[in-house]
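Entry 14. Structure prediction run on the chain below.
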Amino acid sequence: MSLPKCFDILNLDYFINIQFQMENVQSAHQLQDLVNEVYGQISLLESTLQSQLDSISAMASLIIDPTDLGEILSWISNFINSFLKPIINPTIVIPAQLAALAAQIADLTAAIEAINAAKFPDITITIPTISITCEL
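Output returned:
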C-alpha cells in the first residue's frame, strides 16, 4: 500500500537508498559499519517520535464532549475543536509513522540478512536493537 504523495508518513527514499548502499558493500566490515550507522539513526528517529507522542498525549484527556451546559459548554466545545484538537493531531499521525517505521525496519533487517548470507556467508553481521535513547 503506497502513501499519498501530498504527505508521506515516512521518507521511503531513505530506506531504498540504504538498501542500495548495502547491496554495494565490498566487505562484511563495510556492511556492519553501515548497519550500525543506520540503526543508530533509526533509534534516534524512533526516540524522537515516541518522545513527542508521550509529551502531547496527556493533552488528549482534555478533549471532552460537553452535552448540556448551555453557552459555557458551547464555548468549551469551540475551544476544544478550534484549539486543542489541532494541538493533539500528532497523536494520530505519529503512531502511523511509528508503524511505518517498524515495517521498514523489518524489511531492512531481512535485506541485511539476505545480503550477508549471499555475500559473506561465513561472517555474522550483528543488527543492533532499536532503542529509545533520548527524550524531549
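The chain has a mean pLDDT of 82.
Filed with the rest of this week's runs.
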